[in-house]
Design brief:
The protein has 7 helices and 5 strands. With 194 residues, it is mainly alpha-helical. The strands form 2 sheets. Strands 3-4-5 form a 3-stranded mixed beta sheet. It has a two-stranded antiparallel sheet with strand order 1-2. A hairpin with a 2-residue loop joins strand 4 and strand 5. Helix 1 runs antiparallel to helix 4 and helix 3 runs antiparallel to helix 6. The model has no long low-confidence stretch (mean pLDDT 90).
Amino acid sequence: MFLSVPPNNAEPYGTQALSFMSLPFYDVSVATHLQTLGGVANVLEKGEAFAAEHAIDLDELLRYRFRDDMAPFSFQVISVWHHSMGAMKAFQSGVFEPPPKMSDMTWEKTKALIAYAIEYLSGLDRDLVNELSGKDMVFRIGGRDLPFKSDDFLTSFSLPNFFFHSTTTYMVMRSQGVPLGKMDFIGQMRMNAG
């Protein structure tokens, strides 16, 4: 739910009744994931082209970390995949777990993960996804099951992680000199047709 903004002549917040609007679960999850996944796919394509032009080793780039205590670039992309497609699968099964260990990551595998997530999410039925709203689920980690409602898991954990790792993917590419701008990251916006 999102707070609506009062008109210019309305009473300030705190002195009026607040109104809320709701958004379909599909729009907050699948549509949002698809928009950003498209941006991440674009960032990876531009990064690959830049690496080819400037003789940058893509395997070395996959291991790049901003700091020694951070996960490598490959994990950032794995996490984008996991917090989009993996989250949607978890909403259906009722269980979310940390991403699987993936060794021998290559640039092609990172691109394939994002492409697979886009393909999977694009095939989800809007009505069936909307039915996942409000469902009980758990985040299984370290032998514990942390209970959530699907909406709360999406908005308080999964989407923040999805955006964190998407942004980190962008920032690693940008820090390596790839000519990117905000619109490369944002992806295809959902504007009114006509």
